[in-house]
Amino acid sequence: MLERSVDRRRGGHRSRPNVVKAHLDAIATAAKRLLEPPITLPYPDYMEARPPGYRGVILFHYEKCIGCSLCAQICPARAIKMYRVPGDKRLRPGYNVGRCIFCGLCVDICPVDALSESLVHDKVYEDVPSMDMDPVDWALWSRRVMDEERSPEKPLLRARLDPERGIVYEEAQPASSGGEG
Amino acid sequence: MALVQLPGMVGRELGSSEGLRVVELNIGAQHPASGHMRLIVYLDGDVIVRVDPDIGYVHRTVEKLAEGREYVRIISLVERMTIIDACNVTLPYVEAVERLLGVEPPPRARYLRTILCEVNRIASHLYGLGIGGIFLNHSTMYMWAFGDREVFIHLASLLTGSRLTHTYPVFGGVRRDLPQVFREEFEKAKRYMLRRLREYDKVFFNNPVIRGRLEGVGVMTAKQAVALGATGPNLRASGVRYDARMTGYAAYGELDFEPVVGSEGDALERVWVRLREIEASLELIDRALRGLPEGPFMAEKFTKTVPPAVRHWLGKGRLKLPGSYVRLKTRPGEVLGRGEMGRGEITYYLVSDGGMKPYRLRIVTPSARNVVLFDALARGHTLMDLPAIYGSIDYFPPEADR
């Protein structure tokens, strides 16, 4: 029905390697890699130590908040909503970590540093409602996350580049995101 | 209509043509490899008569959602079309809005945008090469490309604080200044990647098995490529010297950008263009880092209204936004934003009625333009050539479906 039209032109810039040599080259190049250690992070036995400035879960410092609601307005995922807290005249932000996309725009727009980014990203929640936190829950949870940053449950490995091996992971000390600052 | 059993597949017999049976075959019920889609292939014996790409599985109404959001909140929305190429996909939108706002980003911001765009392009090409490799059952290339992509994701996370969805360019500048460690880490990444590209040549590009599968398959002439509206490396592999970066957006105009152009137009040539573009991108980042101008990374129009309590962050290389940034109002008008992504040219057509939200945001992505190539290139080839053609087009459904 339709003829297969195959044009076997030989490209000017394309070399035509010797078939036997090219096979051997390919096998040798791949085999050389056998001797090198794996490049993967042994997750979850080890956790990755995030680089400074990493955008993890958002931390809330209640005492600094002025209730301006800019964070809730800029949030592209509507993960931050303003709540009425009993005994507090102003509205305060609550956080749904399940909706959060970790863009950090709320931290950028907060005029008083009441929000900060943590270095923690991988967290497990028992159920969906526990991901949706009101302002008080969020502030208490933030303290727990900061404790976790300082003393992580699992040993940390930090990614570093190596001109010979690409990405390598080496033992690292826990660092703080400076959340309180 | 009889069902035809093929090894591992079910086809539907459509009748006969010139004495041969024509069979309809579903390739990938939902997810053949690079994303959610399906190819309905009509076969005459082993020869492809027609390919109908069934797209739209990951349509998320990005254009409509954009109409209900403030300008700054759209940045992370459009980013989700192609999270693996996040800076390239958002930059034309940001530049389009900047033109409506009348804001000029400082030179340092333009260079930093270029650096992240090229880091993204390398990561995107490695992703495409890896997927292309596994299409041909070359799992070494798949593993290597994805492992080496991690190097560039690491570079991006040093610069932006995020691995994939960086939300890095914002109106008037960028969100982070270049960290101290970046230059040193990039130097290592460049040396490593250049060495690895030579290994890729040996294990993949010059491998006789790969040559046999890709050479002379899915040939697209320059004239055909222009007529079909192909874009990106697929277009340049056919010998057309065209790249949206030649328009000189961001800092490309000052970096003596020269596109990589192939000649043959076959599947192997498309792989070649991607491999050489990785080299070219490394060179571009190197040039941008050397020529990186000093100065602020955000336009003064916005930084001067940042509250004094948080101004100290700007000196530490972190952006702080003024409160008015959420409700930016543009002048009424229509602008066109163009940029070159890893897979080709992306176009934004933004209509503003002077409000806080766009009246209309039309997006044409490179994969949406390249989807026609499935039918045009595969006709006349055998079924076993289809994975080679698919892999070489580097089609990414979430980007095409928007």
Helix content of chain A: 10-25%
Task: Going across the biggest sheet of chain B, name each strand in turn.
Answer: 1-2-3-4-5
The major pleated sheet of chain A works out as: 3 strands, mixed
Largest interface: A-B, 58 and 76 residues
Backbone CA Rg of chain B:
22 Å
Elements of chain B, N to C (H/E): EEEEEHHHHHEEHHHHHHHEEEHHHH
Tally the structural domains of chain B.
2
CATH homologous superfamily classification of the largest domain in chain B? Cytochrome-c3 Hydrogenase, chain B
Number of strands of chain A: 8
| CATH topology label of the largest domain in chain B | Cytochrome-c3 Hydrogenase, chain B
What is the helix tally of chain B?
A: 16
Under the CATH scheme, which architecture of one domain in chain A would be assigned?
2-Layer Sandwich
CATH class of one domain in chain A equals Alpha Beta
What characteristics describe this protein?
heterodimer, A: 181 residues, alpha+beta, Alpha-Beta Plaits, three-stranded mixed β-sheet, three-stranded antiparallel β-sheet, 4 helices, 22% helix, elongated, disordered N terminus, B: 402 residues, Cytochrome-c3 Hydrogenase, chain B, 2 domains, five-stranded antiparallel β-sheet, 45% helix
Descriptive account of the structure:
The complex is a heterodimer of chains A (about 180) and B (about 400). Chain A is of the alpha+beta class. Chain A is built from four helices and eight strands. Chain A has a domain at about 55-150: 2-Layer Sandwich (Alpha-Beta Plaits). In chain A, strands 1-7-8 form a three-stranded mixed β-sheet, with no helix packed on it. In chain A, strands 3-4-6 form a three-stranded antiparallel β-sheet. Chain A has a two-stranded antiparallel sheet with strand order 2-5. Chain B folds into two domains: about 5-55, no CATH class; about 60-400, Cytochrome-c3 Hydrogenase, chain B, CATH 1.10.645.10. Chain B is globular, with a radius of gyration of 22 Å. Chain B has helices spanning about 60-65, 70-80, 85-100, 105-135, 140-160, 180-205, 210-215, 220-230, 235, 265-290, 300-305, 310-315, 365-370, 375-380, 385-395, 395-400, and strands at about 5, 10-15, 20-25, 40-45, 45-55, 170, 175, 335-340, 345-350, 360-365. Chain B has about 400 residues and is an alpha+beta fold. In chain B, strand 6 and strand 7 form a beta hairpin. A five-stranded antiparallel β-sheet of chain B has the order 1-2-3-4-5. A three-stranded antiparallel β-sheet of chain B has the order 8-9-10. In chain B, strands 6-7 form a two-stranded antiparallel ribbon. Chains A and B meet through helix 1, helix 2, helix 3 and strand 7 of A and strand 5, helix 2, helix 5, helix 6 and helix 7 of B.
